[in-house]
């Protein structure tokens, strides 16, 4: 059965095996934007194609700052992904979002530094190719709702809205920072959603983020300090629920995929005139933006 969906999953290293993809194949896909985190695993669940990449590489060898987000998005696009789901560990800045809960993020604040956050811009040859996409609503409401429904059906407590603040890391927040982010209106905190969500929009991929709350960050009085061991423990305890949610998501995608407005995010976004576009950069963008550059 083919429904037209190809769900890209960016997540933890053991997830593809855990969701028992049918006819799974692991392949290396080259990107002009450098080396991706690793090979992709392609297979099917309930007749729906899924394409998985481990964000931090095999054995979690890449820190959030070292991930090549552009290459990861580019290779997923080259694999024919239509929609992109990120699965992430997150800290909570909201009393109601307790460890073990799941959050379907709908807003983002970017506090990362120095990461390549766009496929577009100036080139070393003096030319360039500039584009400005809309990012007012950085996640896809359709995919987010489908994922939230699936997580609830799998038995999770799900919050269907939440503002995620992305920090550079790899250290966790100071107490002062954690309290400041709460004042800004952030509900959860992590290190990887940006520039991932930005790049997904430039690649015209509807993006959803389902986060698993692992801790209360550093703001809560009397709470133990955040450490990596606690984060890993909560993630492992919720891995089966996340995997079950993906299986249930596949079952919900039993009809043909209808177009999304995000499929045309680059319409009108290219600012550089055809005569002054850098041909080398344009060639690198064949997967991401070939639809509007041909």
For the record, what CATH class applies? Alpha Beta
The average pLDDT is: 92
How many DSSP H or I helices? Answer: 8
Order of helices and strands: EHEEEHEEEEEHEEHEHEHHH
Q: What structural class do the secondary elements suggest?
A: alpha/beta
Q: Based on the structure given, which CATH architecture is correct?
A: 3-Layer(aba) Sandwich
Largest sheet: 11 strands, mixed
**In whole angstroms, how far apart are the ends?**
31 Å
Q: Assign an overall shape.
A: globular
Here the CATH topology equals Rossmann fold
Number of strands: 13
**Which bin fits the share of residues in helices?**
25-40%
Strand content of the residues, in percent? 15-25%
C-alpha-based Rg, rounded: 19 Å
Q: Low-confidence stretches at least 5 residues in length (pLDDT < 50)? A: none
- How many structural domains? 1
Q: At the fourth CATH level, what is the homologous superfamily?
A: Nucleoside phosphorylase domain
Task: Describe the fold and architecture.
- The protein is of the alpha/beta class.
- It has a single domain, classed as Rossmann fold (3-Layer(aba) Sandwich).
- Helices cover 29% and strands 23% of the residues.
- It has helices at 15-18, 69-78, 141-153, 175-183, 193-202, 228-252, 279-284, 286-293; strands at residues 6-11, 22-27, 40-45, 48-54, 83-92, 102-105, 107-111, 121-122, 128-129, 158-159, 163-167, 188-190, 207-215.
- Strands 1, 2, 3, 4, 5, 6, 7, 10, 11, 12 and 13 form an eleven-stranded mixed β-sheet that branches. It has a two-stranded antiparallel ribbon with strand order 8-9.
- Helix 3 crosses helix 6 (228-252).
- The longest helix has 25 residues, at 228-252.
- The two termini are 31 Å apart.
- 46% of the residues are buried.
């Amino acid at each position: 059965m083919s429904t037209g969906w190809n769900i890209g999953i960016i997540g933890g290293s053991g997830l593809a095996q855990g969701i028992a993809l049918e006819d799974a194949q692991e392949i290396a896909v080259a990107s002009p934007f450098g080396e991706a985190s690793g090979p992709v695993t392609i297979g099917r669940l309930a007749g729906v194609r899924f394409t998985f990449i481990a964000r931090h590489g095999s054995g979690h060898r890449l820190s959030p700052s070292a991930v090549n987000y552009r290459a990861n998005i580019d290779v997923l696009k080259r694999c024919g992904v239509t929609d992109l789901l990120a699965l992430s560990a997150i800290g909570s800045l909201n009393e109601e979002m307790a460890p073990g809960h799941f959050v379907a993020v709908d807003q983002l604040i970017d506090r990362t530094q120095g990461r390549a956050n766009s496929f577009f811009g100036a080139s070393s040859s003096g030319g360039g190719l500039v584009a400005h996409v809309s990012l007012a609503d950085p996640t896809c409401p359709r995919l987010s709702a489908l994922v939230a429904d699936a997580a609830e059906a799998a038995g999770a407590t799900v919050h269907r809205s939440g503002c995620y603040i992305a920090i550079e890391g790899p250290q966790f927040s100071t107490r002062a920072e954690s309290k400041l982010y709460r004042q800004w209106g952030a509900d959860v905190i992590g290190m990887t959603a940006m520039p991932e969500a930005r790049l997904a929009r430039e690649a015209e991929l509807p993006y959803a983020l389902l986060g698993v709350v692992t801790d209360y960050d550093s703001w809560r009085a009397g709470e133990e300090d955040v450490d990596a061991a606690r984060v890993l423990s909560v993630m492992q305890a919720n891995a089966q629920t996340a995997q079950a949610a993906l299986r249930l998501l596949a079952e919900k995608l039993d009809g043909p995929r209808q177009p999304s407005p995000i499929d045309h995010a680059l319409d009108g976004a290219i600012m550089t005139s055809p005569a002054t576009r850098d041909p080398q950069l344009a060639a690198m963008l064949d997967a991401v933006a070939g639809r509007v550059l041909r």
